[in-house]
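Appendix B. Chain record.
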Amino acid sequence: QQGQRCFFSPMKLCTQTEVLTQHMSEEAALTLLAQAGFDAADLSLFHLQQSPRWTDSGWLDQAKQLGDFAREQGVPILQAHAAFPYHQADFETDILPVIRRGVEIAAAAGAKHIVVHPVQHGQLSQDPGRDFELNLTFYGRLVDLAQRYETTICVENMWSYDARRHCIDHDVCSRPEEFCHYVDGLRQALGPHFAACLDLGHAPLVGVALPDMIQQLGSRIEALHIHDNNYHEDSHTLPGHSELDLAAAFRALGQIDYAGLFTLEADNFLVHQAPALYPAALTYMHRVSAYYRDLLLTAKIAK
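Structure tokens predicted for this chain:
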């Protein structure tokens, strides 16, 4: 039993700050996460371009101070999510500077993993080889920051919407073989600072079985986005509140010895709550996370 307690302790329960920070400061959000029992925070930088905190001249100091505050509260910022302004027209002026700043903010705040979406959203040629080269160039423009800050940049499995057929379809890294190819190819060409962030909700949207995706990716997975949906909408709700068989996914993660953060990306569960109910909702989210995390850890022990 003592050995099991030591084994269980490293996997930290984490969730993102996105919805909370639409109603309050990052500091207030982190305080709520700490009070709910979370062990770490995933800093959402989706709206970096619109935030005075991250666009004023003192943004780097702000990031360091926020990281210090998070550690003092007991919820260190260990993961982050970069903005994804890929609908903008100009890569050099509208996309790359925002992504680079996000990587620096995340690192200064203490994050060791930052999720950076691959280029997609209609900008690809549908030629897999050419599309990989486009993303290789894109991620290559970030490798200096990853090396400087000793940060891992995580590629995420994506999906797209086919307006003609009115349905969700495959996109970059949505197939296990392609996802493996991207991570391996980036590491071979650019160095070791790249890994997979497996989004547990995205794979079923395109008909990929999560245990199969997990087994094929194996140790390439260093981050998770955990949420539930009905196989038709990317609803980002709490596990157990829709239709995915996430228990099978967590058991598969235990079988490959996944040891990273257990990170919820289920903020749409909070969207439907009044802000006054956030403390209670977050406490429930934490308890749900702990339940499913323990399924993963039990599968590890049973190997």
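Further analysis of this model is presented in Appendix C.
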